[in-house]
Amino acid sequence: MTIRSRDGVDVVVTQDGSGPPIVVLHGGMSDESPWAKVAAELGAHYRVLRIRRRLYRPELPADPATDFGLEVGDIAAVVGSLGGPALIVGHSSGAVVALEALVALPRAFVGAVLYEPPIPDVPLGAADSLARSRAALATGHTGRAVRIFLNDAVQVASPLALLVGALTRFVPQLRTFGARQIDDWDAITRLGPRLDAYATIRTPTLMLTGDRSPGHLGERIRLLAQALPDAAVQVLAGQGHGANDKAPALVAHHIAAFAARVGLGGPSH
After folding, report:
1. Among residues 165, 170, 171, 167, which one has the least CA distance to residue 137?
2. Of 7, 201, 222, 236, which one's alpha carbon is 20 to 30 angstroms from that of 210?
């Protein structure tokens, strides 16, 4: 379905299930699809609304200076259409957008679940990483740009970064999403230090992190947990940054349990 945002653009939303609403913001280099399994798990008791983020809609222009603000506007439009409180779930860069929404819309959500947000208070890569990735993108080398991102910012193993970079030559969607991932990285970097702003968030928050994720993501989680007034951390044993795809039942379980804790309803209501 679509919902009109404040600037006249239709927000693309995929809806699953019925019940109290849960709004999901996907991570980078993808659309809402990687959260389909979690949505299916939650759909028996919740209405799950997966927003397709603007940055990953190739029919719309990308502008790292304004896109996060526009995405917050999209979230406001979706939540405003619900007629009641919602839980927000954000993954990776989508969790950073969720944090920005929690700052801008302090009464819109009864709770938040944030899965490894790469907050910009710890640099994402070396001082020249983004510039090198941008330069590669500008010369048509999307695979190289993505490889720099994965090596420097995400800090995945080099063979995996090489593989994903190579695949951009053969998978058009990955090539498109890879280019937009660099815009996403740029948008996060442009935010600058945000812990002081995030410290104003009073919404109860659960942070998810995998014990097999890159170490810098755990460090960001620790900093954020110290800053937020009402935050808890749940470590996903045996999981990395993609448990929404590899262990959807586990992720859904923690989201549902937290939703019940903040009074959103669910199986026990």
Report:
1. 165
2. 201
What is the radius of gyration, based on Cα positions, of the chain?
17
Would you put residue 171 in left (φ > 0), alpha (ψ -120 to 50) or beta? beta
Measure CA of the first residue to CA of the last residue in the chain; give whole Å.
28
Task: Please enumerate in sequence order all residues whose Cβ is within 8 A of that of 56, keeping only pairs 6 or more positions apart, or say none.
Answer: 26, 30, 31, 177, 180
Report d(CA 13, CA 137) in Å as an integer: 29
Residue type, position 100, single letter: E
CA distance 259 to 255: 6
Q: Rounded to two decimals, what is the model's pTM?
A: 0.96
Q: Reduce the secondary structure of 218-259 to three states and give it as a string.
A: HHHHHHHHHHCCCEEEEEECCCCCCHHHHCHHHHHHHHHHHH
What tokens were used for 269? 């209501």
- Check: CB of residue 99 under 8 Å from CB of residue 201: yes
Read off the tokens for 173: 């969607």
- Strands 86-91 and 231-236 turn out to be unpaired
pLDDT in tens, 13-71: 999 999 999 999 999 999 999 999 999 999 999 999 999 999 999 999 999 999 999 99
Other C-beta atoms closer than 10 Å to the C-beta of 157 total: 11
Bridge partners for 48 per DSSP: 16, 22
Are 32 and 70 in contact by the 8 Å Cβ rule? The answer is no
Q: Cβ(58)–Cβ(83) under 8 Å? A: no
For residue 22, the one-letter residue type is I
Residue 194: phi, psi to the nearest 5?
-130, 5
C-alpha distances out from residue 244 to 32, 77, 98, 157, 252, Å: 11, 25, 17, 20, 8
**In residues, how long is the chain?**
269
